Amino acid sequence: MKNVNVSLQILPAVPENKIYDVVDKAIEYIQSTGVKYIVGPMETTMEGEYDVLMEIVKKCHEIVFEHGAERVVSVVKIDAKKNGVTMDEKIYKYR
Amino acid sequence: MKNVNVSLQILPAVPENKIYDVVDKAIEYIQSTGVKYIVGPMETTMEGEYDVLMEIVKKCHEIVFEHGAERVVSVVKIDAKKNGVTMDEKIYKYR
Amino acid sequence: MKNVNVSLQILPAVPENKIYDVVDKAIEYIQSTGVKYIVGPMETTMEGEYDVLMEIVKKCHEIVFEHGAERVVSVVKIDAKKNGVTMDEKIYKYR
Amino acid sequence: MKNVNVSLQILPAVPENKIYDVVDKAIEYIQSTGVKYIVGPMETTMEGEYDVLMEIVKKCHEIVFEHGAERVVSVVKIDAKKNGVTMDEKIYKYR
């Protein structure tokens, strides 16, 4: 199965001064999975198999609820190419 | 399991004059599933169980590839609330 | 100048039970401008000139701050075509 | 005026093998403006004044049309806080 890129921006409905703490929990989880990822200012992008990444997205929502969010709105971007796509092909010129 | 809202904007890399045809195939599939949905100018929003809707999102990507896309970029928005959320609570005032 | 479509999803950092009230203020403003618009479950889409619509987007942010938000995260989608684009060409089959 | 963060993902309707070339033109323009920015795998995020950044977003659309796109779909995310927001406060732990 070819690799895709999935970006996750997760916006928990918690008091403003708690947002980063709760989002950090989701990022910690992503780090713990071993997938390739880049944390950006608005979203974390991952590279891997579609099903693996979307399972991580689901788990991130659960984590955010476990940490006190009443509601979660998130934006998930998917970039899929027939022969696979890497994060590196899109950013190597700029790093 | 509580209902969530999932919006899907799917952008197939096909010649510009084929975009609507290909996107229509994904919408036809959504219609065939029986979930509650609203087609908007930029995205189709669905209401139902998280796993059911995300499985539909996955299938929509497959359909777009089957109809000639070399690449698909999509934006998936998820709105989840502890006690469930309906599309209607967000738009009833405006319909 | 050709018409574009601009969608706005505005997420104010306010207590969860205040979100709809604050978002409604932004929608009321959009209604007051006279542009063509459709309110959807995740975003409001407008049709008109680029500069006019982006000025409305800016004003919506100001309104949300005036109604108590400490922070606003929003997602703005733009669809622009050389010869203009209508909302209707994308949804007429589904209404 | 307080700084905001604006992310731009620009998707030109050009043949798939031209996408990166066209998007690079927009990124080159962003670099030429002198604003603080980070290129990510799905979007470029900028930090600065709202009006300055949104003017750059507009110019990026024009550049993409000048480089052969018939159509452009883009996703612009805005993060605004009463007392300003930096990209660094969101990513320093992860760099």
Q: Specify the CATH architecture of chain A.
A: 2-Layer Sandwich
The number of distinct β-strands of chain A equals 4
Please summarize the sheet with the most strands of chain A: 4 strands, antiparallel
Low-confidence stretches of chain A: none
Question: How many domains, in number, for the residues of chain A?
Answer: 1
Q: Helicity level of chain A, as a percent range?
A: 25-40%
Write a structural description:
- The structure is a homotetramer of 95-residue chains.
- Chain A has helices at residues 19-33, 50-66, 88-91, and strands at 4-12, 36-39, 44-48, 71-81.
- Chain A has 95 residues and is an alpha+beta fold.
- Chain A has a single domain (4-94), classed as 2-Layer Sandwich (Alpha-Beta Plaits).
- A four-stranded antiparallel sheet of chain A has the order 2-3-1-4.
- In chain A, strand 2 (36-39) and strand 3 form a beta hairpin.
- The longest helix of chain A has 17 residues, at 50-66.
- Chain A is globular.
- In chain A, 49% of the residues are buried.
- The model of chain A has no long low-confidence stretch (mean pLDDT 97).
- Chains in contact: A-B, A-C, A-D, B-C, B-D, C-D.
